[in-house]
Q: What sequence folds into this?
């Protein structure tokens, strides 16, 4: 049973870089047809897709965040990571990692989710 | 990309059926059969309920069904149960190879 485990700091200062890692267990991050995604949810608000990375390394980003986001794979360590640069208070949210793709072949339909982690941007 | 449009709230009594709409454009909902629906209980991660407009993942009750007409997708829950009370979000794949979420709908079981 594939599982996703998030890790990273819960507090980030304004203008700095938010970095999170999602460790994959029970399966390989290199499996074909899998897209590994990041989604966030500000307190009391809805879900927002941040971006996804294909097993091959191709990346897809939310247009409004694209200039500040990098998602990358670490195949030997079987995890994928998110960097969000120049954060502000508006980036305060619960961040989720998730697996997409196996049911549809495109980067949607996130069938397995990590537990979510709250990241607060504050000095 | 603009968020898909969902009603803020819907409600129904146990045993009844409810439908949640999700309206997009021809660049997302109307252009692809890649609409998904998620259920989220407070403090929990979302759970995939419907993918590919009308398909249920293994383990999801057949009380949940999805459909699409033009630029609007719909989630129907029949035989409402207390545990169905949650937030529901739709998503769609888009023309620019991205994913867009709906604003979410709070379902209250009366």
A:
């Amino acid at each position: 049973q594939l599982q996703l485990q998030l890790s990273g700091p819960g507090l980030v200062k304004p203008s700095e870089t938010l970095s999170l890692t999602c460790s994959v267990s029970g399966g390989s991050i290199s499996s074909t047809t899998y897209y590994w995604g990041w989604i966030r949810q500000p307190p009391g608000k809805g879900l927002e897709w941040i971006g996804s990375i294909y097993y091959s390394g191709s990346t897809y980003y939310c247009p409004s965040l694209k200039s500040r986001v990098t998602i990358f794979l670490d195949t030997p360590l079987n995890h994928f990571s998110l960097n969000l640069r120049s954060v502000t208070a508006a980036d305060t949210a619960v961040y989720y990692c998730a697996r997409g793709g196996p049911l549809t072949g495109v980067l949607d339909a996130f069938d397995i989710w990590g537990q979510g982690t709250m990241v607060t941007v504050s000095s | 990309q603009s968020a898909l449009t969902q009603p803020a709230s819907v409600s129904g009594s146990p045993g009844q059926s409810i439908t949640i709409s999700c309206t997009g454009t021809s660049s997302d909902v109307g252009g692809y059969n890649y609409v998904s629906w998620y259920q989220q209980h407070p403090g929990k991660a979302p759970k995939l309920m419907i993918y590919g407009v009308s398909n249920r993942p293994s383990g999801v009750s057949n009380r949940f069904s999805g459909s699409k007409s033009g630029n609007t997708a719909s989630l129907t829950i029949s035989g409402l149960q207390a545990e169905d009370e949650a937030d529901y979000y739709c998503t769609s794949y888009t023309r620019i190879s991205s994913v867009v979420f709906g604003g979410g709908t709070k379902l209250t079981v009366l």
User: Anything to note?
Assistant: Chain B touches chain A at residues 1, 3, 34, 36, 38, 40, 45-48, 51-52, 55, 57, 89, 91-93, 96-104 (CB under 8 Å). DSSP finds no helices and nine strands in chain B.
